[in-house]
Design brief:
The structure is a homodimer. Chain A is mainly β. The first copy, chain A, has one domain: Jelly Rolls, CATH 2.60.120.10. In chain A, about 10% of the residues lie in helices and about 40% in strands. Chain A contains two helices and twelve strands; from the N terminus they run E-E-E-E-E-E-E-E-E-E-E-E-H-H. Chain A has a six-stranded antiparallel sheet, with no helix packed on it. In chain A, strand 8 and strand 9 form a beta hairpin. The longest helix of chain A has 11 residues. Chain A is globular, with a radius of gyration of 16 Å. The N and C termini of chain A lie far apart (about 55 Å). The model of chain A has no long low-confidence stretch (mean pLDDT about 90). Chains A and B meet through strand 1, strand 7, strand 9, strand 10 and strand 12 of A and strand 1, strand 7, strand 9, strand 10 and strand 12 of B.
């Protein structure tokens, strides 16, 4: 068997998977996020995409960022809130989220429980960009976005 | 917004998704399978892969087939049995199945409940091949495979 290929069967146990490393969300510790882990479920040599599982602990949030590559997301566990562009929605288990190129986005575990999601992404992709102060000011022109960001950026 | 792109948010309701067509599993009615439906959750213009949801009704099974492209599978609903190459396993919700190129494979809803699974696949891919009589004879040299196939091919 190709050493880079996943074994045919891998068991699930409490949101961990057999043989899958439980990783920090970002390798760059200076990026703003809170209480997120990452597991790469599929990174196959013949496939154009990867499938990852991210889990945000209660009150945690992913990095507010954007990039050229798209994300295709299915909520696998729990509930929370999600921003895509200027739209904010409550999301629940099995809901779908599509993040188009260059849309600002963030996931937040706002429901007192973990928010876990699958994310399909191109294997070859650009690095995420963080918002400048000017970007943040532009985002805040949408009142719902300002309220969403305030909950992350200025915790009570 | 790009008309070919999915909307940012799509709700889940009883293993159907908002705006997602509930399709027959195969367009070719001569292919052997039983009680399977297909929903394409993500087919995005910028992504190298698609994400589909297949659901096999109790006692149903997917086509026994193989192809050059790989499949990356996560069981989303229920339990059942799965063959990959000459290996057969019981699979449950959230287990992972990796189907390498040219491996014979089949999913069977053997537990008296639906077996639903997500399947990530390259957007550009070859067509599945069905087994010849010689292929079936070769598969049957593995006793567990023969027993698995007998349950499908010669129902009591």
């Amino acid at each position: 068997m190709d050493q880079d290929r996943s074994p045919p069967f891998r068991r699930f146990d409490d949101y961990r998977w057999e043989g899958v490393a439980h990783l920090p969300y970002k390798e760059d510790a200076t990026t703003p996020f809170k209480s997120v882990t990452r597991q790469v479920l599929f990174h196959e040599p013949d496939m154009g995409c990867e499938l990852r599982y991210f889990e945000v602990a209660p009150a945690g949030y992913s990095t507010l960022e954007r990039h050229e590559h798209a994300h295709a997301v299915l909520i696998l566990r729990g509930r929370g809130d999600c921003m895509v562009g200027t739209e904010i929605r409550h999301v629940e288990t099995n809901d779908l989220v599509s993040i188009p190129p260059w849309a600002w986005h963030q996931f937040r575990a706002t429901a007192g429980e973990p928010l876990g999601f699958l994310c399909m992404v191109n294997a070859l992709r650009d690095k995420p960009r963080l918002p400048t102060e000017a970007d943040r000011a532009a985002m805040r022109e949408t009142p719902a976005v300002a309220a969403f960001l305030d909950r992350t950026e200025r915790p009570a």
